[in-house]
Automatic annotation (TrEMBL):
MF (Gene Ontology): GTP binding; GTPase activity; guanosine tetraphosphate binding; translation release factor activity, codon nonspecific; translation release factor activity, codon specific
Name used for this protein in its record: Peptide chain release factor 3
Predominant location category: cytoplasm
Species: Wenxinia marina DSM 24838
Any coiled-coil regions, as ranges: none
Cellular localisation: Cytoplasm
Similarity-based family: Belongs to the TRAFAC class translation factor GTPase superfamily. Classic translation factor GTPase family. PrfC subfamily.
Domain Tr-type G as annotated: residue spans: 18-291
The keyword Acetylation appears for this protein: no
Organism lineage string: Bacteria, Pseudomonadati, Pseudomonadota, Alphaproteobacteria, Rhodobacterales
């Protein structure tokens, strides 16, 4: 089978851009995302020993998690990026791995992260199959037709039958699955995999977890060399299964992988470093190069000479000693060099990017240059918000980065009433970061804070205390839902004036209708056909 991605009718990219692969890993908690990330970095030469990323016994997390909160809770709250090179067959790829928060409460953040990548690696646990969070994240990828590569992990433990796993993915996720490798034996008897793409045998080394598997080149399954490595019973089963797989399952079609309708699956064991290299080679071969970015009034192509990029995430207080914020920018086109002056399209201002950061594995480094596909961090004092576009002058605006109406609302008051102004400032900062929605009601004092999942309230309260030294009281709100109000200006103004007790403004100053009941929303839509109450708004 061919080892190159499908030809497209787009122009060839400059080599520096063409070698970039920007992707995220999606998985259910515990499937092995952190372990796989460590091994990626290890094989990418970014770290010497996997243990540097996660000290044994310590709470599970890679160094990509920066904040105290995450350390305390052992969850990955924020998404961040890691860049590293990988020498694949015939090419050295630059991988940009964008980390997604694993907890379901942070789905909005995850959604936006997925707007910054060109592909996703889906990790599933071989014993558990497709779990709830995998399914949810997959649906998000599908909304964007993202190409997906699958890694079935933990094959060193008792796992399900290979056909059963493949069937489950096909049925639950409605995507065709094509095996890139086939496992030999399970659990204690797991020997390794037969590489269906290259006709080779990959044997797992149980003694050294950081060693790459031994590769045995063979001429197909009937090669007598197989018998030297695989016991007769396992070999017979392997031959039968591969024959059946080749009959029943579709062959790898790179074009369909790029469309997002087919996923190749590799089997392995991240903790034993097994199957990881093959997966990385697969990312190089089948995940797409940096893709064009939807924008208005025109699309941005990665090969354009001028630089354009957009903010998909803002993280405040990454270093508690310095009140800095970092805007994570995905470069959509061009060749960026440190010191460049870029136009902040929304603010119509110039921004000199003097100290951009590249996230190289465990460390942040100054980015001297970056190319389309890369993620850079731009420290700033609040000028850059999620959804902002940076260009070399052209008034172009990246589209498709949504903001979702929160599903849970609470009121926020300062523990010390003298500190109300300080609280407002802190809340606004978190709102800009995308950590919560903050609504200022037209009547009364205090704020209504909205989030997608309960855990976000806790995160918010502890961050306000930790980062601003402000005790905050979050209490149940009389409101249960929020909707943005859209429509002709005069109608919207009249509607707002007549419904003052329900009206608030979000942190961008946009009008919001707060309500207790869903039927209230239905009633308004019926009684005021010119008014639209929307659950999403595009960040701009
Ligand atoms: P996550 O980020 O997706 O939540 O998963 P993580 O990598 O932290 O892995 C979850 C658990 O699964 C960890 O065990 C990890 O060591 C284990 N694991 C990962 N890959 C494999 C594998 O290929 N085979 C086996 N058998 N286990 C694997 P833990 O006991 O929860 O943590 P730890 O004490 O090992 O750090």
């Amino acid at each position: 089978m061919s080892q190159t991605a499908a030809p497209t009718n787009r122009p060839a990219l400059p080599l520096e851009i063409a070698r970039r692969r920007t992707f995220a890993i999606i998985s259910h908690p515990d499937a092995g995302k952190t372990t796989l990330t460590e091994k990626f970095l290890l094989f990418g030469g970014a770290i010497q020993m996997a243990g540097q990323v996660r000290a044994k016994g310590e709470a599970r997390r890679t160094r990509s998690d920066f904040m105290q909160m995450e350390k305390d809770r052992g969850i990955s709250v924020s998404a961040s990026a890691m860049s590293f090179d990988f020498k694949g067959a015939g090419n050295t790829f630059r991988f940009n791995l964008v980390d997604t928060p694993g907890h379901s409460d942070f789905s909005e953040d995850t959604y936006r992260t997925l707007t910054a990548v060109d592909a996703a690696v889906m990790v599933i646990d071989g014993a558990k199959g497709v779990e709830s969070q995998t399914q949810k994240l997959f649906e998000v990828c599908r909304l964007r037709d993202l190409p997906i590569l699958t890694f079935c992990n933990k094959m060193d433990r008792e796992s399900r039958d290979t056909f059963e796993i493949i069937d489950e993915i096909q049925e639950n996720l409605a995507i065709d699955v094509t095996p890139a490798s086939w496992p030999i034996g399970v659990g204690r008897d797991f020997l390794g995999c037969y590489d269906l793409l290259h006709d080779r045998l990959e044997l797992m080394d149980r003694a050294d977890r950081n060693r790459v598997a031994e590769t045995v080149r063979i001429a197909g399954l009937d090669d007598p060399k197989m018998e030297q490595h695989v016991p007769p019973a396992l070999l017979e089963k392997l031959r039968e299964e591969v024959e059946m797989a080749r009959e029943l399952l579709p062959p790898l079609d790179p074009a369909r992988v790029l469309e997002g309708t087919m996923t190749p699956i590799w089997f392995g064991s991240a903790i034993n470093s097994f199957g990881v290299k093959e997966l990385m080679e697969g990312i190089g071969a089948y995940a797409p190069e940096p893709q064009p970015q939807s924008a208005e009034p025109r699309q941005i192509a990665p090969e354009e000479e001028t630089v354009a990029g957009f903010v998909f995430k803002v993280q405040a207080n990454m270093d508690p000693k310095h009140r800095d914020r970092v805007a994570f920018v995905r470069l959509a086109s061009g060749h960026f060099e440190r010191g460049m002056k870029l136009t902040h399209v929304r603010a119509k201002k110039q921004l000199a990017v003097t100290n951009p950061v590249l996230f190289l594995a465990a460390d942040r480094e100054l980015a001297e240059e970056a190319w389309a596909g890369d993620i850079i961090g731009i420290p700033n004092h609040g000028q850059l918000r999620i959804g902002d576009t940076l260009t070399e002058g052209e008034a172009i605006r990246v589209t498709g980065i949504p903001s979702f109406a929160p599903e849970l609302l609470q009121t926020a008051r300062a523990g010390d009433p003298m500190k109300a102004k300080h609280l407002e400032k802190a809340l606004m900062q978190f709102a800009e970061e995308g950590a919560a929605k903050v609504f200022k009601p037209a009547i009364g004092s205090g704020f209504v804070v909205g989030v997608v999942g309960q855990l976000q309230f806790e995160v918010l309260a502890s961050r306000i205390e930790l980062e601003y030294g402000l005790p905050v009281r979050l209490e149940p709100s009389q409101f249960k839902s929020a909707r943005w109000v859209a429509g002709p200006k005069d109608k919207v103004e009249a509607f707002a004036a007549a419904n003052k007790q329900h009206i608030a403004h979000d942190n961008d100053g946009d009008l919001v209708y707060l309500t207790r009941l869903q039927w209230d929303i239905d009633r308004i839509e019926r009684d005021h056909p010119e008014i639209r109450l929307t659950a999403t708004k595009e960040m701009m």
